[in-house]
Design a protein that fits this description.
Helices cover about 40% and strands about 15% of the residues. With about 280 residues, the protein is of the alpha/beta class. The protein has a domain of about 200 residues: NAD(P)-binding Rossmann-like Domain (Rossmann fold), CATH 3.40.50.720.
Length: about 280
């Protein structure tokens, strides 16, 4: 089977690619990092159309998004909203023409009406439902990113774990943006990738009107994450003074149905160790 990954160089996409190849599946890359012709914001993208036609399954991972710092600064900007509307309009249009089985990665923030990012993901879910695709809601995915991809990103786009690891490594100081009391369910990207691949390979058997929540199902505070990084990289921690100003302490609860089909394997400690190990291999 041929699996087209839109956003194949990103954090989740790269882990998904690794996993699919490891189980003998064929992967078709598609990411703006590869070439300007793979910019999903471009209308009538013939390169994208050709890749979709070639594929058996499509994973719609690509989105203009980043960590909490990035969302706080940009999610209400015209550019952020316009980028994601263009991406969704172009991709869903071609998926509607080709009728290919596909999966759309939404977010646990899709029901937070105060968040532009959440609202955009909610729109993506509506598109997906109308086309009989699969909706997966991701819960705070983090993981290793290749040096090439990481250098291409604004540091504001880092997830909180990567951000803390970078600060601990280079500054010997984790300077938190908030007081760290906000709670998140952190899941390592390889666990997320396996879950998405497993869902796609049972595509015909799944209820397309159901949202599949991919999470660790374990709560950790942002301060807990800083402490876990500190255990593995000696550093100082300084808390910020503000509280959660992205999700405003709204704690959604993931639907546990997914645990009947898949279970996470890596703890937060395991995931942080894996990022550090892989970064050290490239002397980052």
């Amino acid at each position: 089977m041929k699996h087209l990954i839109l956003g194949s160089s990103g954090q989740v996409g790269s882990h998904l690619k690794e996993y699919l190849i490891s189980i003998g599946e064929e992967v078709i890359d598609f990411d703006i990092i590869n070439s300007p012709v793979q910019d999903l914001r471009v209308s009538y993208n013939l390169n994208l159309y050709d890749k979709i036609i070639m594929s058996d399954y499509v994973y719609f991972l690509a989105f203009d998004v980043g960590g909490s710092k990035y969302l706080k600064q940009y999610q209400d900007s015209y550019e952020f909203i316009d980028n994601n509307i263009k991406i969704m309009n172009n991709v869903f249009q071609l998926l509607s023409y080709t009728k290919k089985p596909f999966l759309f990665t939404s977010s646990q923030m899709s029901n937070i009406s105060t968040s532009s990012y959440g609202l955009l993901k909610a729109i993506g879910e509506k598109y997906t439902n109308s086309l009989n695709g699969l909706v997966v809601r991701l819960w705070n995915i983090y993981g290793y990113e290749s040096p090439t991809f990481e250098r291409s990103l604004n540091r504001l786009k880092n997830d909180v774990v990567t951000d803390f690891i970078q600060m601990a490594t280079f500054d010997k100081l984790i300077k938190m943006r908030t007081d760290g009391s906000e709670l998140r369910q952190m899941l390592y990207a390889s666990d997320c990738a396996k879950c998405m691949a497993d869902l796609m390979l049972m595509y015909d058997e799944l209820d397309k009107l159901k949202n599949y929540h991919i999470s660790s199902f374990t709560w950790s505070s942002i301060y807990d994450i800083a402490l876990e990084v500190q255990k593995q990289i000696s550093c100082e921690i300084i808390k910020g003074e503000i509280s959660d100003d992205v999700q405003f302490d709204k704690q959604n609860k993931p639907d546990p149905y997914i645990l009947e089909l898949w279970k996470p394997t890596l703890t937060l400690s395991d995931g942080i160790s894996e990022i550090i190990r892989r970064r050290n291999e490239f002397k980052l």
